[in-house]
Amino acid sequence: MSFGDEYGGGSGRVRGGTGRARTRTHPGDEAVDEYGDGFGDPHRRPQRTTRSLVTVVGVVVLLIAAIAFANRSGDGDGDGGTAKAPREGGPAPTAATGTKPVTGKNGTIPSGFAQDEQGAQSAAANYAVALVSAGIIKPQERPEILRRVFVPSRVKSLEADFDKAYSPQFLAKLGLDADGNAAPGMTYVSRAAPMGTKIVELDSRAATVEVWCTGVFGTAGVSSTNPVTSDWFTMTIKLLWSGGDWKVESFSQKDGPAPVSADRTASNADEIAAAVEEFGGFTYAR
């Protein structure tokens, strides 16, 4: 799933959850693209019918549009100075810093990030996961996610924008009810995993961080018209130092970079649904 273009929030790509929503199923989801690690015994994946492909593409387009709508006021106001390029001499781009990422959690979302380069990257990675989670499309859960992730000055307007983007009509096109729930016997999936982060701009009060992610988005179920697919996308997250922590001011999403997709036999709906329920997520640290 990928997210849409500009985000003020949004889950996940609405990617089918795919900002797919890449939830790109949330306003934040983006297109369901290729995944693959290129390892293991190759198996030919069953061919998708033209109708299935059209359905998936249609859902992705809807998710991207919702995300772009929710973040239309993306530049927002903030209290940071002009950001500058990070200093040289820090940890190598792909090396972990080894520093503890957070001092606590705000509900299920990590908080208490350090006011430095490592803290900004850790914050961006964890917020990327929250923004493409299945909860972002649920009207009962979304306000709390927005409050925990965004700067206070953005929350009220984003609540209204997301309510419009994730309207009952939009959710129905994803096969979900007005509360963002899948039909009985179905499981809605929207989960992302950061692969790496990169500082674009940084000073003591503001940061722009790119987060390269992979994820799975869609609805698991025998009769699902929006099957769970994998995706690769990059989120650009603008952070401000607010209330003693890094918070999101705005964000955007684009497809890729994506590796060559491996030919593998797809798991059935029950296996996917069970994996979502049984495997927990992580707190991410740069």
Description:
This protein is an alpha+beta fold and 286 residues long. It has a domain at 58-67 and 110-258 and 267-279: Nuclear Transport Factor 2, Chain: A (Roll), CATH 3.10.450. It is 26% helix and 23% strand. The chain contains six helices and eight strands, in the order E-E-H-E-E-H-H-H-H-E-E-E-E-H. It has helices at residues 50-70, 117-131, 142-149, 152-165, 168-173, 269-278; strands spanning 6-7, 18-19, 104-106, 109-111, 187-202, 206-220, 229-242, 245-255. The strands form two sheets. A five-stranded antiparallel β-sheet has the order 1-8-7-6-5. Helix 1 (50-70) packs antiparallel against helix 4 and helix 3 packs antiparallel against helix 4. It is globular and about 50 Å long.
The SSE string, one letter per element, is EEHEEHHHHEEEEH
Which structural class do you get from the secondary structure elements?
alpha+beta
CATH fold annotation of the domain at 58-67 and 110-258 and 267-279: Nuclear Transport Factor 2, Chain: A
Q: What is the spatial order of strands in the main beta sheet?
A: 1-8-7-6-5
Morphology call: globular
Rg over CA atoms = 18 Å
Quick structural summary:
The chain has helices at 50-70, 117-131, 142-149, 152-165, 168-173, 269-278, and strands at 6-7, 18-19, 104-106, 109-111, 187-202, 206-220, 229-242, 245-255. It is an alpha+beta fold and 286 residues long.
List the helices and strands and how they pair.
Elements: E1 6-7, E2 18-19, H1 50-70, E3 104-106, E4 109-111, H2 117-131, H3 142-149, H4 152-165, H5 168-173, E5 187-202, E6 206-220, E7 229-242, E8 245-255, H6 269-278
Antiparallel strand pairs: 1-8, 3-4, 5-6, 6-7, 7-8
Helix pairs in contact: 1-4, 3-4
Domain DUF8175: 103-256
Biased composition (Gly residues): 1-19
Pfam families: DUF8175 (PF26526)
